[in-house]
Structure formats: structure tokens, C-alpha cells
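We were asked to recover a plausible sequence for a given structure. The inputs and outputs are reproduced exactly as logged, with field labels preserved.

PROBLEM: sequence recovery
POSITIONS: 424
GIVEN STRUCTURE:
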């Protein structure tokens, strides 16, 4: 999740050598990025206009506008925006009235910020292993781990896939009256039986962090159709501190930085220019403290109006980008078939959004990814590098999670050239 913009002469030389070789071989001069692919010129223009008008940065109406638009696009009764997905989850924990010491089941293969949100609330989660079809929580694990004191179940839809056991988990939880939290950070816009994911659990949360389905550098939103939970979430959102002037400025500058480095056609040349110009404003969404399970100084913030305006602009384009992702995924389907690799399962009557295309490869291929650069002209992602990405905290507890950590890589689903898509 962290993209370094450090400028080392060796890295620059390596990049140019690779570009030259690619072009000579008939390939693209730069590899498709794994982040920020949904930022366009219009988002950059918007960020520039916002940078010129700091008095508008905390415009609360803009946040309400985004919440309304997100709720209606997503088919949700209520939506509440926060600075990030993890802070939306933190709000959900409060919205559900969870207390220190409560029993909560959480996926044993997730991003470190998910268990952190619980431990900050005094809750030590019980970890459920995943299945290897869609990397979702396995219903058999929920059955094994549930107790009469289980207060919530967290499930997720990873890589933009709809979780294999979605129906089974929500039905099981409903029978027992256990609230379900859906982590939709990778899957904004994915549908099941025609309904967007996140709407069947008690709450669902989404992320617009810079590597996710839509991009506001950092951003998050939580939805619910439960009126009681909605009132609590609204109170949490109203009481949440606002981001600082410096945070908002860095976020807006980062839109320009990320667009130059990850999306612009000229990014080969602009990467270093961008780092020199905007590098000091670079946002690191997950800090080293968070890797260590510590709570950052600033946590639980609401979304800034400026971020909400970016989010509204991104939302206009999300369906088109998700369509493009599905087209890219068909390319990777054909590739996985040809290589004999296990393809991700697309459950019947679901529409995935393929934030990335996950595939299991031999562990030594994940450990050294240079083959992908030369054979495919891409730099695969490594989600996840640990059971608590990017750190490993639970080794030995969830065997499928451990296997996925060793073998799952993810292919980019935006930005392949036409010749790459045609497999030439
Ligand atoms: C990114 C991510 C989150 C948190 O979203 P942020 O907006 O980065 O806080 C939660 N769950 C998963 C699976 C994620 O990948």
C-alpha cells in the first residue's frame, strides 16, 4: 500500500533500461500500475481548484452530498463518510455498540488495519480461516468458532470477488441474531443477486484509499439499513474530529503526485519530477505504528469536504472502470487457464469488480516476481504478504491463509495495453 517516491539513480537507470527493452520487444514502455488507475485529468483539475480555495476544505454539505450519492448509487439506506475505510470500520464497531472484551470473529487473512480497529476498541478478535476459491471467510470456520457470546462476525469480499459463502454466512448470522460487518474495501460496486455487496450485513464499509476501487488517496464510507445503528453512526460521525489543514493539503497534492506517477501517459518521465515537486506531501496511509498494532495519533476522523468532492467525481466513473476491470480479468482468465493456475471463483449470480486478479502460483514464483516483468510486462501485486498484511501475526493458526500468503499474487486489471490484452 506504500509507494515510495524516493529517487535513486539506480532505480531511474533500471526504469529506463526496462522501458527501452520493452519497446524494442514491442511491449509497453511502462508497466501498468497497481494503484491510482482511476485518477484522471478531471480529478487533477478538481484537486487544483480545491488547493486554491482552502476555505472550502471542511465544507460539511459536500460530505452529506457524497453520502447521499453513495447511498443511492450503492442501494443503501444510510451512508456515513470517514477519513478512511479503517476509521469507517472503527465507527461501525461503535455503531454496533461493541464493548471491550467482546467476542468477535474476523477473517484470518486481512489487512492489519482491520484487527487494529478492534484492538483499539479493547477487542481481541478470534480468527476464522478462509477458503481458497474467493479468499473469503469459510462458513465451516464460522460454525466451528461461534459461541453464545459471539457479538459480531466480520466477512470480506477480497480482490473484488464476491465471497463464496456470502449467502451462508448472512443466513447463519441472521438465525442467531449476530450482526455481520462486511468489509467491502476491495469490492465497491460488486453485486450479488443484483444488489451491491455491503447491504446484506448489518453494516458494510468501503474504502477509497489510493489502491482501491475508487480513489481519493484516503477515504472511507460505512452503510447500514438498520435505523438504530444509523443513528449511532450519525452521532459518531458528528463527534469525529475533522482532518487538519496539513492533512487535507497533502491529500490534494497527492492526487497530483499519484496521477503523474501512476496514471499519466508520460509517467516514465514524470515519476521523478513528481517526487521532487510533491514528494514531501506524500501520504502514507498505513504507518509503521499501525504495522505494530499501535494506534496513530490521529484516528477516527471524519471525511473532509474536499475529499468528499473528489469522491463524488470518482463515483461518476466507478461503473465504467469496473467494466474495464472485468474485461481485463477475461485476459487473465485465459492466461491462468493456459498456465494451469487455479482461477478465482465467480459465484453464480454475482458480478465481481476485480480490483485485482488473484491467482495462486508456486511459492518461489511469488518470492521473486521478475518472471512476470519479462514474460508478461506487468508487476504483479503481492496482496497479502502476511495474515495481517503486510505483517504476519498468526502463522500456523489458519492454514489456508498461510498458503495464500505464500502463493497468491494479483494481476493488474487496469492499464494493460491493447497488445497485452490481445495476448500478442
Ligand atoms: C484497504 C483495506 C481496508 C482499509 O481501508 P483503508 O481505507 O485503507 O483504511 C480494510 N480491509 C481491507 C481488506 C483492505 O484491503
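RECOVERED SEQUENCE:
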Amino acid at each position: 500500500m506504500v509507494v515510495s517516491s524516493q529517487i535513486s539513480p539506480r532505480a531511474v537507470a533500471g526504469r529506463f533500461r526496462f522501458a527501452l527493452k520493452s519497446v524494442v520487444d514491442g511491449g509497453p514502455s511502462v508497466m501498468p500500475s497497481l494503484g491510482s488507475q482511476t485518477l484522471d485529468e478531471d480529478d487533477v483539475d478538481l484537486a487544483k481548484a480545491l488547493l486554491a480555495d482552502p476555505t472550502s476544505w471542511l465544507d460539511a454539505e459536500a460530505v452529506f452530498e457524497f453520502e447521499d450519492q453513495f447511498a443511492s448509487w450503492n442501494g443503501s439506506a444510510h451512508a456515513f463518510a470517514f477519513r478512511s475505510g479503517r476509521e469507517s470500520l472503527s465507527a461501525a464497531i461503535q455503531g454496533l455498540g461493541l464493548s471491550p472484551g467482546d467476542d468477535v470473529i474476523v477473517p484470518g487473512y486481512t489487512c492489519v488495519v482491520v484487527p487494529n480497529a478492534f484492538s483499539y476498541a479493547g477487542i481481541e478478535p478470534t480468527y476464522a480461516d478462509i477458503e481458497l476459491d474467493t479468499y473469503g471467510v469459510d462458513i465451516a470456520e464460522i460454525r466451528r468458532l461461534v459461541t453464545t457470546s459471539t457479538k459480531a462476525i466480520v466477512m470480506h469480499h477480497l480482490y473484488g470477488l464476491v465471497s463464496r459463502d456470502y449467502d451462508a454466512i448472512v443466513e447463519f448470522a441472521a438465525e442467531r441474531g449476530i450482526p455481520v460487518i462486511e468489509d467491502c474495501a476491495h469490492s465497491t460496486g460488486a453485486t450479488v443477486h443484483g444488489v451491491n455487496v455491503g447491504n446484506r450485513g448489518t453494516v458494510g464499509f468501503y474504502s477509497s484509499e489510493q489502491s482501491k476501487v475508487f480513489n481519493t488517496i484516503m477515504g472511507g464510507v460505512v452503510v447500514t439499513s438498520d435505523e438504530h445503528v444509523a443513528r449511532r453512526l450519525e452521532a459518531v460521525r458528528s463527534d469525529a474530529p475533522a482532518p487538519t489543514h496539513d492533512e487535507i493539503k497533502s491529500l490534494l497534492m497527492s492526487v497530483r503526485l499519484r496521477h503523474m506517477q501512476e496514471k499519466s501517459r508520460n509517467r516514465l518521465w514524470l515519476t521523478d519530477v513528481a517526487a521532487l515537486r510533491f514528494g514531501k506531501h506524500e501520504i502514507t496511509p498505513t504507518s509503521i505504528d499501525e504495522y505494530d498494532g499501535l494506534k496513530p495519533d490521529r484516528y477516527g476522523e471524519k471525511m473532509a469536504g474536499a475529499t468528499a468532492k473528489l469522491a463524488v467525481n470518482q463515483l461518476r466513473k466507478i461503473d465504467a472502470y469496473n467494466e474495464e476491470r472485468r474485461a481485463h480479468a477475461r485476459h487473465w482468465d485465459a492466461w491462468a487457464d493456459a498456465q494451469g493456475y487455479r482461477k478465482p471463483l465467480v459465484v453464480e449470480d454475482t458480478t465481481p469488480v476485480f480490483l485485482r486478479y488473484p491467482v495462486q502460483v508456486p511459492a518461489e514464483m511469488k518470492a521473486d516476481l521478475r518472471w512476470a516483468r519479462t514474460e508478461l510486462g506487468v508487476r504483479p501485486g503481492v496482496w497479502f504478504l502476511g495474515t495481517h498484511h503486510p505483517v504476519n501475526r498468526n502463522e500456523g493458526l489458519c492454514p489456508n491463509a498461510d498458503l495464500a500468503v505464500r502463493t497468491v499474487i494479483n494481476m493488474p486489471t487496469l492499464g494493460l495495453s491493447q497488445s497485452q490484452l490481445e495476448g500478442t
